[in-house]
Amino acid sequence: MTSLLQFARYRVEDGVRDLLGKEISARVSETNLESDLDDAILAGIGAYALRRHLPGDILQGIQVFTAAGSHALLLSNLPMQEFPPTPVSGFGDETELAVTNAIHLGLIRILGCTPFAVRYENDGRLVRNVVPNPAASGTTSSWGADSEFFWHTDNPHQPFGPPGSDPRLYTPPYLTFYAVRNEERVPTEIAALDDVVVRLDEETRLGLTAAEFEIGAPDSNDREATGPLVRTEVLEIGPDGRHRARYDRGTTVGITDAAKRALERWCAVLPTVPSAELVLETGDFMIFDNRRVLHRRKAFTPRPHVRARWLRRCYAA
Ligand SMILES: [Fe+2]
């Protein structure tokens, strides 16, 4: 069976990258821009330069991504600024990352999306530093390194939002990343939910669409602030007619016997599903649909703190 993963990959030419870097650096150096306070300004600066310099086919690919119902998009060789040491405590000085933020938020704007944060995670800050935080050792949090992530979607303990609603109350529709450094060459793996669904038997599929599951919050959440979603389904068909799922092995439980059986079958099928294994490199931007893609990361040994793996993640709706 071939993979149903719709994954668009583009690479920016070196000349265009350098031009973009020069122009965006000049614009952001005029003031002190911070990702939480000045996100709209940063997005405007980034989007303007990207629209001016990216070739038409890349711009078109980004603009139609959400409407086309693609699973994922990767854009490589974006400008790389001088990066500070990896902020392994989780937070750093955002004004030092103005070029990176302008590109990241500018791309989200060209995608036609809105960046957002949730108050119960990451101190409510817009951009999450995905780093090996020693304080998160042993947890399956995006700040962990030594624990393996099984296939999951992010924040599955929230319901799916109706179009046009406040995204902060719901499962994040899209996850976006800018890779700062990944010298450990840790891959991020993605798999299309459609590839899981075609491998499920009818009984399992029906079982997963019954509201007979309890789905809790991941380790990265402040648990006092977010309860589990009870009597909910793992799999459903969205208003666009496409399957969507919310799932995290560590926090998803079947309440009935039928639900437990369906979950066992689902877990047995996941390792057989084709996936794309991506080693994100400095200057890579990636977006994927968190409702229609499962993702995972294996355990790894981080480099010393200043050079440790560092991705920047932002939710988008
Ligand atoms: Fe995740």
From TrEMBL:
GO MF term list: dioxygenase activity; iron ion binding
Location of the TauD/TfdA-like domain: 218-315
Signal sequence extent: none
The organism of origin for this protein: Streptomyces radiopugnans
Lineage of origin: Bacteria, Bacillati, Actinomycetota, Actinomycetes, Kitasatosporales
Gene3D superfamilies with a match to the protein in the record: Clavaminate synthase-like
Keywords from the named record: Dioxygenase, Iron, Metal-binding, Oxidoreductase
Keyword Repressor: no
Protein residues bound to Fe cation: H295
Protein name (Swiss-Prot/TrEMBL): Taurine catabolism dioxygenase TauD, TfdA family
Pfam annotation, one family: TauD
Taxonomy, superkingdom: Bacteria
Protein family according to the UniProt entry: Belongs to the clavaminate synthase family.
